[in-house]
C-alpha cells in the first residue's frame, strides 16, 4: 500500500508527513462481498455516475461508513474524508484567511527619485471541501448531521449549481469556484434521535439520493464475523443468531449490531474457545457483550437477560464436544 492508502474497512486515518491530505482506499481482504453488498454498491454507483450525491442513512453498525469507503474506492479518485462535528463552522469545511503577506517595493532606479509601494495580500488556505471541489475528488462526509445546518449550508450550491461560494476570496476576485465535474460526494448520517446529531436540512437532503440501510442479511453478517475473526462459519452463524435475537428484544435501550457479533467471534477465536452449549467461557462472553442491550439495567433485568441467553444457546448452539481424555 502506498502513502495514505486505506483498506476500505478502515475509518481512522492519520495524516501523512508528505502533506498529502487525500486517501486512496483499497479493497481489504477482510471486506466481505455478498449479493446484499453488491446490490447496494451497484445502485449507489449508478446514482453517483448520474451526478447524484449519495447518502447512506441508518442506525449504528449498519455498514454505512464501510460502504462509503468501498464505493469511493470503485470511483478510483483520491478521497477526502470529513467527519461531521458540531463545532464546525463553514470555514472548517471550505477554508479561511490565514493572515496577510506584505510586499514592499523600493524603486531607486533613478537615484534622485525614490518610489515606495506597499501591498497587503490576504493569504487563504483551502480546507478539505474546497480542495475536493477544485480537484474533482470524491468526498466522504461521514456522519454529516453531527455538524450544524449552518456549517453545512455551503454544500447547497455545490450540490445544486456546481458552485462553491468562497466569500473570503471575493477581494481577490475568486469569490466563486466552479466545482470540477469529477467531484462526487457520499454522505452518511445517523438517526436524528442519536446523541450529538442535528436535524438534517430538507434542502440538503433534497439534493441527494438517500439509501436507507438496515441491519444486513444473515449471510452478510455471518461472513463479516468470519472475515474479522477467523472463526468457523457454523460458529459465526450461532453467534449472529443470538445477536439477532437480542436485536428483536422489545423496548431495547440499545440495539446490538454486527459489532457485537464480531466482538464475540474475536474473543472466542483468540481464546481458542467455541460457540457451543456448555462452554462456560462462551456463555459468559455472550452475556458480557450483550448485557447492556436489555430493557433495564437492574439486577432483575440482568437475570432475565441471562435466562433468555441460556435458552437461546440451548436452542441454537451444538453441544460442546468432549475431548477424548475427558
Ligand atoms: N462488507 C463488510 N465487510 C467486512 N466488514 C464489514 C462490512 N460492512 C460492515 N463491516 C464491519 O461492520 C462494522 C460496522 O460497520 P460500519 O462502521 O461501516 O457501520 P456504520 O453504519 O458506519 O456504524 P456507525 O453508525 O456506528 O458509524 C465495522 O466493524 C465494519 O468493519
Ligand atoms: Mg460509521
TrEMBL record:
Signal sequence annotation: none
GO-annotated cellular components: cytoplasm; gas vesicle
GO molecular function: ATP binding; ATP hydrolysis activity
Reaction catalysed by this enzyme: ATP + H2O = ADP + phosphate + H(+)
SMART domains, per database record: AAA
Keywords from the UniProt entry: ATP-binding, Cytoplasm, Gas vesicle, Hydrolase, Nucleotide-binding
Family: Belongs to the CbbQ/NirQ/NorQ/GpvN family.
Protein name as annotated: Gas vesicle protein GvpN
